[in-house]
Structure formats: structure tokens, C-alpha cells
Amino acid sequence: MVGILMLGSMLHWFSYRYKIDQEKDELTQITYNMLGFLIFEDGKFGILKDADMEEKAREIIDEYNLNDVEQGRFAYVINAANSEIIWSASSLGKPSDLVDPDYYLYFDLGKDQSQEPSFKPFFAQGKPRTPRDISRLDDPTVKQKYNQEYLLAAQNFFQEPYGQFQFVVGESIADIQKEMQDMRQKFAILLFLSAVLVLIAQLALSFWVVAPIKEFENEVKSIEAGERESVDDHYPEELIPVKNAINALLSYEKGQKQRYKDSLDDLAHSLKTPLAAMQNQLDQLARDVHSPDNPLGNSVKVFDSQILRMREIISHQLRRAMVTNQGAMILSQPVRPVMFRLRDTLQKVYRDKPFEFRLNVDEYAKCRMDAEDMMELFGNLLNNACRFCQEIVEVTAHHEGNMLIIDIDDDGMGFPTDNPAKLLQRGVREDSKNEGQGIGMAVSTEIVSAIGGKIELQVSPYVGARVRLHLPV
């Protein structure tokens, strides 16, 4: 709307100036043509005393409509001293006494411009002075003539000893002003229509913008109500980062809960066997001790109560793991510093093993993961790579869409060809002769799955093992 208003104003101004300049050029041409036929003798102006010249002068006057009785266009010579018209193109001579002086239009041309003689005409624009006989304005035609503006081209010249005179050629610019008025009306209609269209477009745009947000809000409420587990619908590009952040948070929360449960479950199962053995031994000892005065009886009771307490603690922590809610929004964190810390540590751990540790990870490599989880994930995977490699361990990272792809390669024995995915399961390891609980790869899988990523086991370019991580950014 502002653009239309500015464009309309500029177009109106340039069109008006262009038409006025055209009229000025035409009035200048008329001025030069008419002055070529005028002669000043004995204080009077007239046409050159030649029949051919007089005929040509009449032709020019007729051609330019200088004898218009409605005074739409006129030309006359006026005495600057007393503002008396001493010659006009409509009479080709001094007006007779029968001509009403108010027949002509008089203008205030400005004192600064009307005093100095000039070869080129100067221009003025305005309405004529009020006639001497004000009653003439009662005639609508005369009133309209005095209310419209005129464009004037005037030349000053001095004749001794008669004084200063002005040759004035004027033309009504009512038609130009009417065209400008029509243009203003058209632009006003265009501005009104554009305002209506802009309002309609804004209402429609507001609906289109708000509708996805409402859908997004309803989907989040469904997640709060437990009706769904993640934000799955398609949304505009501006809402994709919010969607990814919420899904990452939900995945992280779900993964954290599962990890807490699995960890405590592993601990409970690990303690179950020794606790059962201790309980059996205590039961046997209790059966052997019959005398209440036997000091072993009190010890048996103490051990029995403590074992019972340990069982209660384990049960309590298992229940707590099912309802814990300690998550928070996880921000993207750089991977490079963690890689360097682990590289320095692992090179010290395996200092007796000569191998090259290559890191091709720039400072822009970031992923949405907790710092402790990141240390545990890369610690497990890099430790495996350093343990099984021969001469090379290489880490590379690059982006694919909204995911950070990290490849951890070594030139060791690689993964089994029959079913490498089994290594991602709990309690399974490739080399059963090595120390460990066989849950390193499974824990890494849980960490990656908790943040909405993916882990793949492939063959490295060095004919060893490649672990490819797909981590959200």
C-alpha cells in the first residue's frame, strides 16, 4: 500500500511536470513566432505593414487559437506602468473603446521577474486577478474562467521613451488539472482495492500461519495426555527445529528412563546370586545354631536383617527408575574437544601398542547429546577401536541434513560377517577372551537410540571395523 501510494505520488508529479513542460515549450514557440510579426511605432504595437506578413500573422493566430473568445489561450502586450493592454492577438491592434477592459485577464507576474528585460520568456502560473466589475462573477461561465489556473510565458522589453512593456502569452491548464484529478481518483480506487486485498491476504496468511501452530499445540497436548510418543506430523520449515528439539527431548527422556531401569536391573541381577548364596549360608547356619545363648545367633540375625535391607533398597531403586524424570532440553555440543581428550587418554593406555590415531573432525561438528553420555559413547567405541586395531584408528565426521555422521574406523579383525548386529545386544561381545562385561556396544546403542540417532556396523576402508553413528544436530 505504501508502495502504491509512493508510486502514485511520483507518477502524478512527473506526469504533471511533463505536461507543464510541454505547454511551456509550446508557449515559447508561440512567443517567438508572434514577436517576429510585431512592430513598435509611435508608442503603439501592430503587425508589420505588409499584406503577406499580416496574412501569415493571422494564420499563426488562427493556428494557435490566440483569438479564442473564451480566453482559453491568448496573447497580448501590456504596459507595465499602468497594466493597460495596448495590443492583443484577438484584435490585431489596440482594443477599441467598445471592448470592455474586463474582457481580458490580468495576472500578477511577480515584481522580480517583471522588471528585467529578457530574451527568453519567463513563466508564471496562477489565477487571474479579480475583475474590476465584481458583478461579472455572477455569470457561471465567467466565474469558472476566473477560478481556473493559467500558464503564462512573458517577455520584458524596454522602449525609449515609452517605458517597459510585457508580451504575454497564456493558456488555461484546466484540462491538465482535470487529467491529474482523474489520475488521483484512479489511484485512490487502486489504493482502496489494494487495502482490501492486503487485509484479505493478511487474514488468510494469519490463518495459514496459525493453523500449523494450533496443530502443533494439539499434538503436544496429545503427548502430554499419553496418546502418542512423539511429534510426527509434517509442519512448515520454521517449525521443524522446534519439532526436532521436542522429539530429541522425548527420545532422551525415554532413553534415560530405560537406561536407568536397565542399569539397576543389571545391578539387581548381579547382586541376586551372591545375595541368594549368602542367604542360604545364613539359613544353614541358623539351623545349626540351636542354643539361644550361642553368640552366633545374634550375628545370624544381624546378617539376615542386613540382607533383607539390601533387597529392599534394590527393589526401591528399581521402582524409582521406572518413574524418574530428571531430563532437560539437551543442546548441541561440539564433538572435537571430547575426541581430543579421549585420544590423549587412550594413547597413554595403549602406549605399548604402536598405532596412528587420526582425527578428521572440525569445530563445526556438533550433536545434541549430554556431555557425560558423549564421553561414555565415544569412550566405549574408541576404546574398542584402539584395542582391536593393528596400526590405524581414524575418526571422520560430516553432515547429512539434520544428522551428524561420525565414522570410527580401524584396521583390526572387523565384525563377524554372519550377523554383526548381534554385537549391539546386551551381554554379547565379539572376543570372549578379553576382559569386560560384553555390554559396551549395547550401552552405546542405547545412548544413540535415546537421542533419536542410529548406529551401524560396517567394514572400514582399512578392511577392519567401522562403526557409523547417525547423531541429531
Automatic annotation (TrEMBL):
The chain crosses the membrane at residues 187-211. Its EC number is 2.7.13.3. It is an enzyme of class 2 (transferase). InterPro entries: HATPase_C_sf, HATPase_dom, His_kinase_dom, HisK_dim/P_dom, HisK_dim/P_sf, Sig_transdc_His_kin-like_C, TCS_sensor_his_kinase. GO terms for molecular function: ATP binding; phosphorelay sensor kinase activity. It is found in: Membrane. The keyword Phosphoprotein applies. GO terms for cellular component: plasma membrane. Residues 266-473 form the Histidine kinase domain. It catalyses: ATP + protein L-histidine = ADP + protein N-phospho-L-histidine. This is histidine kinase.
